[in-house]
Design brief:
The chain has 517 residues and is α/β, with parallel strands linked by helices. The protein is 36% helix and 22% strand. The chain is built from 18 helices and 20 strands.
Length: 517
């Protein structure tokens, strides 16, 4: 028996159950000490570092190898000088138990498995206390976006179940909300579409709303297949939680329209998560409102993010996951977990924006997101809508190798996606495509886009031209490099249409890649 584990579980569960969401997030502003501001989360960050340095054998070895005395890390400036950890220089250099507290794998009660680009599995142990910390992100979404504190809610887990992190983690976190008193009931059909339709149709009518949680392309496939099979989504007040991929605001509008969802700011939310450390941040009504404004104002987006593509934009709690930006524009984070991580280099391209800086920037562009949310909800100016929390923002592009270079312009899949999501064209296609640069017989380069047709749709030349023209229009609108670098005679993409599930480009059951080099 491990009595300390029992006390650890009881303490974490009691804290989660007793602490209202407002209380957990009440210390969101920067803290002021003397004449300088101390960023929110620094105290928790310092405590985490000292705990890890004192009790995790692998990190003790790591610090020794870099000649670092933990006692010398006293300020945030000291912390920022700590070496970054990666899978290569840390996680793969030590036996799994040595990465855990006390060097004991049994301090964890659950293990998830992920496979990176090499295909080699990575094991991520965790304890119930780690899940309860992440459950706060789900609570934010279910409370602030879905009003699930006073609406009976069926949470349908559409992530794959098994050793992968998404399904089991999400199911557990949703159950914790029910334990806290939310009228939430969880059902786990996984990524079995037939079972999803069955549970929604047979159980959905007993709840005031149904939440579908899964990867964006799969949720869209569920919705489209359900419509074809006679599922009346509008009956169930559908809400959606996504993770795993960047999607456009046109895509959000599309799936919302097909489920007859009413308020685009409050009917969905995306998670920024990893197998390494669970959920790092989440979309909020505020972040969605801001992102939709930026989607319609590409110049403002380029000024804010520095690129001609729209990233995932979420808010995060620095006390739970503390972010930094590396010199090369990639993200680092620190956070507690079964394998605690200190300045972990995740390699995602992105950046950080404070709450105040974000609202000041938007004001310069004549946009007030709080007023927009009030207007969308039909509220008075004096009313304060849910989902407005003074948390900082993190934006995430993903990894740069998912782009193609064409006449010196970086072409992003996100730019092409929008061209497939305009009216009429979106009825022909699944949304999947493969973007690559090819050469013709004379070795002239051209932009190739292979597009997967929706089930039962037969392609023709007119359809190809319409799709190519739509993609071109969005590339010119969204990507200033493309518009200025690529000669006009080379700008029109060459579109190839394939049937659903094409073995070469869109094999069923394989994670899709939108680019090829």
């Amino acid at each position: 028996m491990q009595p300390e584990q029992r006390q650890r579980a009881i303490g974490a569960f009691e804290e989660f159950l007793r602490a209202p969401l407002e209380e957990r997030l009440q210390q969101q502003q920067s803290r002021v000490a003397g004449s300088g501001a101390i960023p929110y989360g620094i105290a928790a960050l310092h405590a985490l570092f000292q705990k890890v340095a004192a009790t995790v054998p692998a990190y003790q070895t790591f610090l020794t190898e870099h000649n670092i005395n933990p006692a010398s890390i006293q300020t945030f400036e000291d912390f920022q000088k700590l070496p970054l950890i990666t899978k290569e220089n840390y996680l793969r250099c030590h036996p799994l138990p040595q990465l855990c507290y006390q060097g004991k794998l049994e301090t964890c009660d659950f293990i998830a498995v992920s496979s990176g680009s090499t295909g080699n599995p990575t094991f991520w142990p965790r304890f119930i206390s780690d899940e309860l910390q992440i459950a706060a992100r789900f609570e934010q979404i279910f409370h602030d976006s879905f009003y699930a504190d006073n609406r009976s809610t069926l949470a349908v887990i559409c992530f794959a179940l098994g050793t992968w992190v998404g399904g089991m983690y999400t199911a557990n976190c949703c159950r914790y909300l029910a334990s806290k008193g939310y009228p939430v009931t969880v059902v786990t059909p996984g990524n079995n579409k037939t079972e999803i339709f069955r549970v929604v149709q047979e159980l959905g009518e007993h709840f005031e709303q149904v939440v579908l949680l899964g990867y964006p392309p799969f949720i869209k496939d569920v919705i489209d297949s359900g419509i074809a099979g006679g599922v009346e989504w509008q009956k169930y007040r559908i809400k959606m939680v996504f993770a795993g991929e960047v999607f456009s605001e046109e895509w959000r509008s599309l799936v919302s329209d097909r489920t007859n969802s009413d308020n685009l700011y409050y009917n969905s939310a995306s998670l920024y998560g990893t197998a390494d450390a669970g959920v790092l941040g989440n979309e909020t009504p505020l972040s969605i409102c801001i992102r939709r404004f930026l989607a319609n104002n590409p110049e403002a987006a380029r000024n804010l993010f520095g690129e001609s593509r729209l990233p995932t934009l979420v808010q995060y709690d620095p006390k739970s996951r503390f972010f930094e930006v590396n010199n090369d524009g990639t993200l680092l984070f620190s956070g507690d977990n079964g394998i605690p991580l200190i300045r972990y280099h995740i390699s995602d391209n992105g950046g950080l924006i404070s709450y105040e800086a974000m609202l000041n920037f938007l004001a310069e562009w004549g946009f007030n997101p709080v007023a927009r949310l009030q207007q969308a909800a039909g509220m008075k100016v004096s009313d304060f809508p849910r989902g407005i929390r003074c948390l900082p923002f993190v934006y995430v592009f993903g990894r740069s190798h998912f782009t193609v270079s064409y006449f010196g312009a970086n072409i992003y899949p996100e730019n092409v996606t929008v061209g497939l999501e305009v009216p009429t064209i979106r009825e022909w296609v699944t949304g999947k495509f493969v973007l690559q640069v090819k050469e013709d017989a004379d070795q002239n380069r051209f932009l190739s886009v292979v597009v997967e047709l929706a089930a039962g749709v037969e392609g023709d030349e007119e359809m190809k031209q319409a799709i190519a023209s739509s993609i071109l229009a969005q590339l010119r609108r969204l990507n200033s490099e493309f518009a200025n670098y690529v000669p006009p005679e080379y700008q029109l993409p060459v579109v190839t249409l394939t049937e659903t599930g094409d073995a070469e480009y869109f094999p069923i059951g394989v994670k899709h890649r939108y680019t090829r080099q």
